[in-house]
Q: What sequence folds into this?
């Protein structure tokens, strides 16, 4: 998960490892581009104003983050009595994903869903530590080619997704630092959702 031998040498005691991990995570969080975060928040607020849907997608740990993000926007940031965020995770339907993977290839599991569901003006958020996941890249390309707004939340060097998305939050980490990258992606979910929960719908 982390290539910890490369990052920190011998792990030593569990207490030393915890200090080292948290120190590394603190450094990464301190470098985060808050202006980029603010831009994505504005994209989400604009989507709510326009009744546009915000789609989330990712693989592995990022699939869990995509689901969590959609939950937080659709529930925590959309209390009763307020115009809700239309948020949906493309990682949620296991039977559909395995059907698409089996029938037309895993690289198409998000693209095909967007082809059926996305309307011009919808927001498509790809989450990936590497920024190179072929199925996420293909779906973002589809969004860009069909009037969608492409957002990338990435780690490592940002990969292909950083280059093609219109809006990017880049969690700069060393290659292979999945844990700190994915931890920070979850912090972004809670940061953004907590802020949006306080902003009345226009």
A:
């Amino acid at each position: 998960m982390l290539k910890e031998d490369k990052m920190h040498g011998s792990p030593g005691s569990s207490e030393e490892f915890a200090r080292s991990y948290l120190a590394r995570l603190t450094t990464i969080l301190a470098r985060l581009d808050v202006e980029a975060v603010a831009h994505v928040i504005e994209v989400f607020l604009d989507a709510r104003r326009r009744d546009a849907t915000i789609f989330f997608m990712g693989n592995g740990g990022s699939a869990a983050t995509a689901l969590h993000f959609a939950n937080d926007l659709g529930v925590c940031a959309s209390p009763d009595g307020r115009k809700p965020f239309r948020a949906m995770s493309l990682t949620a339907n296991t039977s559909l994903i395995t059907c698409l993977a089996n029938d037309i290839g895993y690289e198409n599991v998000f693209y095909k869903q967007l082809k059926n569901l996305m309307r011009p003006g919808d927001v498509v958020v790809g989450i990936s530590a590497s920024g190179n996941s072929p199925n996420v890249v293909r779906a973002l390309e589809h969004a860009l080619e069909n009037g969608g707004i492409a957002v990338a939340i990435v780690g490592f060097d940002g990969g292909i997704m950083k280059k093609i998305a219109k809006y990017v939050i880049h969690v700069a980490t060393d290659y292979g630092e999945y844990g700190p990258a994915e931890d920070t992606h979850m912090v972004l979910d809670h940061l953004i959702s907590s802020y949006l929960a306080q902003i009345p719908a226009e």
Remarks:
- The chain has one domain: 33-196.
